[in-house]
Amino acid sequence: MIKEETQELVDQGKMLPLMEAFYTIQGEGYHKGTAAYFIRIGGCDVGCHWCDVKESWNADLHPPTAVDTMVEEAVKYSKTIVITGGEPLTWDMGPLTSSLKEKGCAIHIETSGAYELTGHWDWICLSPKKIKLPTEEIYAVANELKVIVFNAHDLKFAEEQAAKVNNDCILYLQPEWSKREKMIPLIVDYVMKNPKWKVSLQTHKYLNIP
Prior knowledge:
Its cofactor is S-adenosyl-L-methionine; [4Fe-4S] cluster; Mg(2+). Its EC number is 4.3.99.3. The chain is built from seven helices and nine strands. The chain has a nine-stranded mixed sheet with strand order 3-1-2-4-5-6-7-8-9. The protein is globular, with a radius of gyration of 17 Å. The model has no long low-confidence stretch (mean pLDDT 95).
C-alpha cells in the first residue's frame, strides 16, 4: 500500500512507478540504431493481448521513484532519453521531462496516445491501439505513426490512423513479433504498393539486446 504522501507525489508526476531503466540501442522506427537510455514506466490499461511487456501493466508492482533520481541516473549514460511503458501518459510527464530538459536531453516518448499529452517532447512515436484510441490532440503533433500489424485487418486500421495524423508524420508498419514470418511478406507487399509507408522491424530482437 502506497503511503498517502507518496501517492500525492505520484499524482503530481514527481514520483513515477519505475519498472526498469537501461542503456541500449533503439530498435524500432525512425531512430533505430541510435544509442539511447530507456525509462520504462509501469501502468497500462490498454491491454493489448500480444504485448511483450505485460509485466508493466500493474503499476503497483513497480516502486514509485523520484523523478530527480531517474534523471540523475539517465544522464550518466546518454542525452537521448526514451520514455516508454506501460503507457507513460497514464501519469503526468511534466516534471520528468522538465528535469531532463534542464540537463540538455533530447526526449522521446513511445505512447498509444490514449491519455492526455503531458510533458515536453522532442519526438513523439504514436503507436495507436484499437482497444483504446488516441486522443485527438496527439495526432497533430506525432512525429511518427507506428502501427503494429498482427493480422491483415490491421492494415485497414493503419490507414484510418494515417488519415488523422499531420502531414509531416512518418508512417511505419511493424509486424507483431510472434507473427513476423507471416506478416512481413504482407507488409512488404503493402508498402511497395503504398510507398507513403515504411517498414519498421524490432531490430533489437534480431540483435539480441534489450
